[in-house]
Amino acid sequence: MTTNNLLNYFLIHLNGLKEKTKTRKTKSFAYLCMTFACFMITSNATAQVTIGSNVSPEGGSILDLKEFAAKSQNQTSDKGVVLPRILLTNKNELYPMYWNTSTSSEQTEYTNNKAELKKKHVGMTVFNLTNTGDFVIGVHSWTVTEWRKIDDSPVIQPQITSLICSSSQMTPNTYTANVPFEGILKVPYLGGNGGSYSGTAATSIDNGLSIERIGGKLAYGGGEVMYRIFGTPIASSPTAATIPSIDFLGQTCSNIKIGDGMIGINLKNLTSDVTISTTYNSVNGDHAQANQLPFGDITINESGSYAFSLRLYGRIGTTSQNRLPFYIYLQKNDKSTLIDAAEIDVVVLGLPTNQQDYSYSVTLGGTFDAGDKVIISMLRPDLSNWTLRQGLSSTSAIRTSLIYWKL
């Protein structure tokens, strides 16, 4: 029996003794005992207490709520705690705790000692029932300056539809041999359902490094799962370490390279030559009918603002000296949504056909949501088309290419 239970037991029996006593002397003794018991309870107020059972409280707790000793899965109760249900009214004040409903004003004690009382109540936790204004229903905790809602993630099995392995990025992405390293690897995903997921134990990967997943909560739609990379590298960057496999919620990435010093810029080359043949005037400047540049799949993995820098290279189809205005468009999904546009003025020098190769650089930008498909397309003037080249290789100097990054 805990000290608290023992004192309660003592009080009950003393109360019975008081009711049964007939003489003043015996009554006086009973009251004396009750006074002593109250003193003992008061003295014990700062001691550790268990509520719900006779099991001793854990050493690090001041209050331990449990019905029985811990079972095989560390369970100590079949019941929970019902928090006070409160109608919070101001996110920055301790209302209704210090609110006078009869005068519709805060209590004088609170007004005169607001800073001190706000500080003393840090950690106070309630179940808020207000569902208007700044508040939604749920558990809230006081943080000295404001009420904060405690996370109420849905209790569902976490799911995603895919991992975007090619956009994985470690920060920082360089390390030094024999110097302890700590970094975060972010792997983008799509199709998150808001469920929570657990972390994993550390495992060795390559170059003296280890990896462990950090537990967290999925975004709705696109987001990033994070991994802690740590250890003492054997070799310095740009010697890369390889992560053989990352498995997350049924999706897998293989052979992810980290530590090569590359920053988070995405490079795309044309998958084939393309001729800008549709004229601006023939479609009345309708960007949805422009010729799409075949850069392959460009899927945004994290919502935000992005910049797209293009280097256009190819042969103009006229030998007449002239100024040719081409139009380039940054679109998303089905080309109906225009994000940005620019006019490209190419000055043709009137050279022989086999010397009519021109290069032009332009940057576009805009805001995208995770999962958006990026499309870049062009219209030409009436005078000539422009055949943009894929190039002889992915590193050829005479090719059309695109780099993009999140701002």
- As a percent range, the share of strand residues is 35-45%
Let me know the average pLDDT.
87
Count of the separate structural domains? 4
Q: Give the low-pLDDT segments.
A: 9-14, 17-33, 35-44
CATH architectural group of the largest domain: Sandwich
Name the assembly state: single chain
* N-to-C span: 63 Å
Can you give the helix content as a percent range? 10-25%
- Gyration radius (Cα, Å) is 35 Å
* CATH fold assignment of the largest domain: Jelly Rolls
What is the 3D shape?
A: elongated
- Kindly provide the name of the CATH class of the largest domain: Mainly Beta
Count of helical stretches: 4
Number of E-state strands: 28
**Which structural class best describes the helix and strand composition?**
mainly beta
Q: Report on the biggest sheet.
A: 6 strands, antiparallel
Structure description:
The longest helix is centred in the N-terminal third of the chain and has 20 residues. This protein has four domains: 63 residues, no CATH class; 65 residues, no CATH class; 95 residues; 141 residues, Jelly Rolls. Helix 1 runs antiparallel to helix 2. It is mainly beta and 407 residues long. The strands form eight sheets. Strands 9, 10, 11, 13, 14 and 16 form a six-stranded antiparallel beta sheet that branches. Strands 19, 20, 22, 25, 27 and 28 form a six-stranded antiparallel beta sheet that branches. Strand 23 and strand 24 form a beta hairpin.
